[in-house]
């Protein structure tokens, strides 16, 4: 987004500017001490830039800084020729030029966690850039302290020896691969996984995987998680005991997809999914990472999968309504296992004196037709809720900060809640506090929901409690036709002209309580509460068996005129 681009541009300008300035000060003036200090500042700026732009190419800046430090070093000694310093310059220049290619080669190597193997080479190459900055900093300190020239030479030779070992190992892997595959492939063959969870997504999306890990573990069969982006490896490895493998290339995927695998599960429609779909011996199953009436929930790309696990019959209807033709036998109704711990309120709660309301604005999306974000009008909703004496749980989408405008709007809402909390003592929750809670915990703490079109509404539907949906588009009276889940909720218009009426229905009268129970079965399936998640676990197990056809979903439960189910089975 725009704010991220500005940060990257500033980091680049600062690093390059300081590197050029350091070299000019040392080379053209007698202020060697100042030049060395500026060189160290340039190294610090380069380190910051590497955090902002992990793939930043700083070769030119590193050469300038190294040249400035070495010229300053020579002046500090006596200005004459020093063989040790000349050797240091040659080795250091070689390291500067070779660090980036070694890092790029290491990035193409397979990496793993939760496996009894040590893939040290790619981990070392990943840190070569940082090691080079530290080395240049040490040489600058040696120059400032006027240490003998052999001191930096020893340091650069030690680093060079490490780089040589890494380079030789990479060359051996590339040109003389070990028989039977590498250590990761051999460890996976011993592990004998029967299925994998495949994942590729932008940064900050690991929640799409972690929400499914507990239920995949319940299957009781060995499995692995296959990642296509390296930044997810630490967080996802910490969330499971199953092997987690990062495969940067198609070749490394060939090593990871061992013969024991029978099925592959997916949690989104990422473009790199096709890299795994090509393994035709596997059964490919789309799980999604939420159930909603958003356009991406009826993505035509779903048709490439062998099975599409959906929460309820409404998801199947959603594809048909969008004109996406998918054979009925591909769909398997499994419920939404993540809602199993949500507490169900069977009787309508009306005229609550001090309600707790969960507000979950979504993000703006990648495209305009997927922008359902209500943050531009959220201040009106929050103020009206505070006027009614409500306690607010504000839980924003993880991607909200990618849009600077949304980030500012969210910050304004937190200011309102903080000010009200200081004035009234109401225990509002926002920011990091809500991220420490699971969505289930937020749902259980609340009496009602205000949300945008998103998967949160489907999850909240399981509780039986009322919800309001923001209409941020141009659908008007056709909004419910496009987003049927809103029909069992209370629709907030974009101009907020009906906000008081909606909040009165949401928190006082709740006339759509009965409608919600019927909608609940359509969207979340009809499975016993005490074994709700087992519907998914059983269906997933059967994907590992040959010649299995899924059963037809059961009919929806009947409800009383008061809005609670006739039977105790949700």
From TrEMBL:
Coiled coil found in the keyword field: no
Recorded superkingdom: Bacteria
Compositionally biased spans, kind Polar residues: 561-570
Signal peptide (UniProt feature, chain positions): none
Residues annotated as transmembrane: 20-46, 81-102, 128-147
Record has Membrane as a keyword: yes
Keywords from the UniProt entry: Membrane, Transmembrane, Transmembrane helix
Coiled-coil positions: none
Region of interest (Disordered), residue spans: 543-570
Matches recorded under InterPro entries: Glycerophosphate_synth, TagF_C
Protein name in the entry: CDP-glycerol glycerophosphotransferase family protein
Source organism phylogeny: Bacteria, Bacillati, Actinomycetota, Actinomycetes, Micromonosporales
């Amino acid at each position: 987004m725009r704010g991220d681009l500005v940060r990257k541009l500033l980091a680049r300008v600062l690093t390059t500017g300081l590197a050029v300035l350091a070299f000019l000060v040392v080379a053209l003036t007698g202020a060697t001490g100042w030049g060395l200090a500026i060189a160290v500042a340039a190294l610090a700026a380069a380190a910051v830039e590497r955090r902002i732009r992990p793939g930043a190419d700083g070769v030119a800046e590193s050469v300038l800084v190294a040249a400035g430090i070495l010229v300053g070093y020579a002046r500090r000694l006596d200005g004459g020729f020093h063989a040790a310093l000349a050797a240091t310059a040659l080795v250091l220049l070689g390291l500067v030029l070779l660090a980036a290619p070694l890092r790029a080669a290491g990035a193409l190597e397979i990496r793993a966690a939760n496996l009894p193997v040590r893939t040290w080479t790619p981990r070392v190459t990943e840190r070569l850039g940082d090691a080079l900055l530290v080395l240049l900093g040490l040489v600058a300190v040696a120059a400032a302290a006027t240490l003998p020239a052999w001191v930096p030479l020893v340091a650069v030779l030690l680093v060079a020896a490490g780089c040589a070992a890494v380079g030789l190992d990479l060359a051996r892997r590339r040109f003389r691969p070990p028989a039977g595959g590498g250590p990761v492939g051999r460890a996976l063959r011993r592990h004998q996984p029967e299925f994998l969870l495949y994942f590729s997504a932008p940064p900050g999306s690991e929640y799409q995987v972690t929400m499914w890990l507990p239920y995949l573990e319940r299957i009781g069969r060995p499995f692995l998680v296959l990642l296509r982006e390296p930044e997810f490896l630490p967080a996802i490895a910490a969330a499971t005991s199953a092997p987690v493998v990062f495969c940067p290339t198609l070749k490394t995927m060939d090593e990871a997809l061992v013969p024991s695998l029978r099925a592959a599960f997916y949690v989104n429609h990422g473009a790199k999914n096709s890299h795994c779909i090509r393994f035709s011996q596997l059964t490919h199953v789309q799980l999604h990472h939420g159930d909603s009436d958003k356009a991406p929930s009826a993505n035509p790309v779903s048709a490439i999968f062998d099975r599409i696990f959906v929460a309820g019959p409404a998801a199947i209807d959603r594809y048909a309504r969008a004109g996406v033709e998918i054979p009925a036998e591909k769909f398997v109704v499994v419920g939404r296992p993540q809602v199993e711990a949500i507490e169900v309120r069977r009787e309508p709660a009306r005229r609550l004196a001090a309600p707790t309301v969960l507000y979950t604005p979504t993000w703006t999306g990648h495209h305009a037709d997927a922008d359902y974000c209500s943050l531009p009008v959220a201040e009106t909703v929050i103020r009206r809720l505070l006027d009614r004496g409500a306690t607010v749980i504000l839980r924003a989408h993880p991607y909200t900060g990618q849009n600077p405008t949304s980030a500012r709007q969210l910050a304004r809402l937190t200011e309102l809640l903080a000010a009200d909390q200081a004035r009234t003592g109401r225990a509002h929750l926002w920011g990091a506090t809500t991220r420490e809670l699971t969505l289930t915990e937020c749902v259980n703490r609340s009496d009602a929901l205000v949300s945008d079109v998103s998967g949160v509404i489907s999850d909240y539907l399981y509780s039986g409690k009322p919800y309001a949906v923001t209409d941020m588009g141009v659908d008007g009276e056709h909004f419910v036709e496009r987003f049927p889940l809103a029909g069992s909720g209370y629709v907030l218009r974009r101009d907020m002209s009906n906000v008081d009426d909606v909040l009165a229905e949401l928190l006082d009268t709740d006339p759509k309580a009965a409608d919600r129970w019927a909608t609940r079965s359509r969207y979340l399936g009809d499975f016993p509460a005490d074994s709700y998640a087992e519907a998914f676990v059983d269906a997933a197990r059967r994907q590992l068996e040959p010649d299995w056809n899924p059963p037809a979903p059961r009919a929806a439960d009947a409800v009383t005129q008061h809005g609670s189910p006739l039977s105790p089975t949700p």
